[in-house]
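Input structure tokens:
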């Protein structure tokens, strides 16, 4: 029997399905916000994440935070270690190189497809992102550049029109962002990277599938080589230990 509120009216309890949807919605919101904090560098590789702290920060109960951790682990952004807790993943150099190799192949395919289907609106959008990337490079704003870089490549793959590839690509890029962010911290890397993106847009706009595919493939390869020449600093001990069996 439902209880009564202060005015004497019956309190209507939420239907179990509605309660479940609310919980799922909160978990999704928590996942998106934690992911944003990770990709923007506020929660760096190796950082320990606690349910209590994030619950208070995001204003949700621990249940949605726990579910968000599970989803983020599936996405490759965090690692849950028994009796230790949850940590932002630190991508090993060899794993990052493997991701770059896969990215290069997907980038090439996306470039080839987009060169044949590019619309005027899509071209304007890509040019606009590159202009903002160049502004960030001139200002030596690696944080802004990093996010624009992610946005640019996400748009290219999205515009290519292969939804399955887009889903796979986004997962790889999010993992790679944990290492690539530091790869773009070198003040010399930003102008070179911005120039490469300008050339990519030019190649796509030319309508030549071979040129567009080659420009994107070579950009991914150049990014990998920059990373290998300037590897990220060693991960904290707990992050290195967590790589076993990955």
């Amino acid at each position: 029997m439902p209880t009564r509120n202060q005015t004497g009216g019956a309190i209507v309890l939420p239907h179990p399905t509605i309660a479940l949807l609310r919980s799922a919605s909160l978990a999704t919101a928590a996942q998106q916000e934690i992911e944003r904090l990770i990709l923007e560098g506020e929660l760096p590789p190796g950082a320990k994440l606690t349910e209590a702290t994030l619950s208070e920060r995001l204003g949700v109960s621990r249940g949605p935070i726990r579910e968000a951790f599970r989803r983020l682990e599936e996405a490759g952004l965090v690692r849950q270690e028994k009796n230790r807790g949850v940590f932002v993943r630190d991508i090993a150099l060899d794993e990052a190189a493997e991701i770059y190799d896969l990215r290069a192949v997907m980038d090439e395919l996306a470039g080839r497809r987009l060169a044949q289907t590019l619309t005027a609106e899509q071209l304007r959008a890509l040019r606009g992102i590159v202009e903002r990337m160049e502004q960030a490079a001139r200002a030596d704003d690696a944080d802004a550049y990093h996010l624009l870089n992610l946005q640019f490549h996400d748009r290219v793959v999205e515009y290519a029109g292969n939804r399955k590839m887009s889903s796979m690509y986004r997962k790889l890029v999010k993992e790679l962002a944990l290492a690539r962010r530091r790869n773009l911290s070198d003040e010399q890397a930003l102008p070179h990277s911005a120039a490469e993106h300008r050339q990519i847009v030019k190649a796509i706009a030319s309508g030549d599938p071979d040129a567009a595919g080659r420009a994107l493939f070579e950009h991914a390869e150049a990014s990998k080589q920059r990373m290998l020449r300037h590897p990220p600093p060693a991960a904290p001990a707990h992050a290195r230990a967590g790589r076993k069996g990955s």
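The longest helix spans residues 93-117. Residues 12-21, 236-246 have pLDDT under 50 and may be disordered.
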